[in-house]
């Protein structure tokens, strides 16, 4: 919905949008949403991001991704603990693979819970530099003790 609002507000007609998610149900819901709001040039891929070869052979204007929640989301029949062994290695592998994509901007959305992982010595930004860090405080859920802070790390090629 946000993407549709953006392209209509700025009268953007020449766009391509690729959406990748490992969760089959999320992809199915996204396909229904794309049909419902009548968007063209949207490609939905149901796969693990890091093994979707076709995205690594293109140039993009913007990559926007949120670090997956290792312990909160359902990833079909894939056991992330078997593949990556630890939550930290899952996130490090995911982040490092993002920087294999050619783009003018990369934005990583990370909850404050995982922000220290971006300082990990195993993170390799491969020619990108941190240009900006945006912090957005979300309202508190009734069961939480404090507000959640979402971080948006904005990278550009060096």
Number of strands: 6
Question: What number of structural domains do the residues give?
Answer: 2
What's the helix-strand series?
HEHEEHHEEE
- Sketch the major β-sheet: 4 strands, mixed
Number of helical regions: 4
Structural class determined from secondary elements = alpha/beta
Short summary:
The protein has 158 residues and is an alpha/beta fold. Helix content is 24%, strand content 31%. It has two domains: 1-47, no CATH class; 59-157, Translation Initiation Factor IF3, CATH 3.30.110.
Written description of the protein model:
- The structure is a single chain.
- By secondary structure, this protein is an alpha/beta fold.
- The protein folds into two domains: 1-47, no CATH class; 59-157, Translation Initiation Factor IF3.
- 24% of the residues lie in helices and 31% in strands.
- The chain contains four helices and six strands, in the order αβαββααβββ.
- It has a four-stranded mixed beta sheet, with no helix packed on it. It has a two-stranded parallel sheet with strand order 1-2.
- The chain is globular.
